[in-house]
Design a protein that fits this description.
The chain is an alpha/beta fold. It is built from three helices and four strands; from the N terminus they run ββαβαβα.
């Protein structure tokens, strides 16, 4: 049985200093970005497979990249019962 790693990337304050080293993303890794986490994933050099949220925290450049990067986009209304990160974690569990 093949094991797949699912990475969930959340937003947060800008990365200060050097970008932390990450293991090379393998072809089996599935990356989910929660709203502004898409900007963070791009900064870390990750290819995002699923972008999820209301996209009120992503930069305009990040939102344009979401739409052209080939990621599956799951848009949710701003008025919802779960945070964008909770939606991303639910999606990861469903996978």
């Amino acid at each position: 049985m093949k094991s797949e790693t699912i990475v969930v990337v959340a937003g947060g304050p800008p990365l200060g200093g050097p970008v932390p080293a990450l293991p090379v993303q393998s072809h089996g890794d599935f990356v989910i970005a929660a709203d502004g986490g898409f900007d963070r994933a791009l900064a870390l050099g990750l290819h995002v497979d699923l972008a999820i949220g209301d996209f009120d925290s992503v930069t305009p450049a990040g939102l344009a990249a979401v739409e052209t990067a080939g990621a599956r986009v799951e848009r949710h209304p701003a008025a919802k019962d779960a945070t964008d990160l909770e939606l991303a974690l639910d999606a990861a569990i469903a996978l």
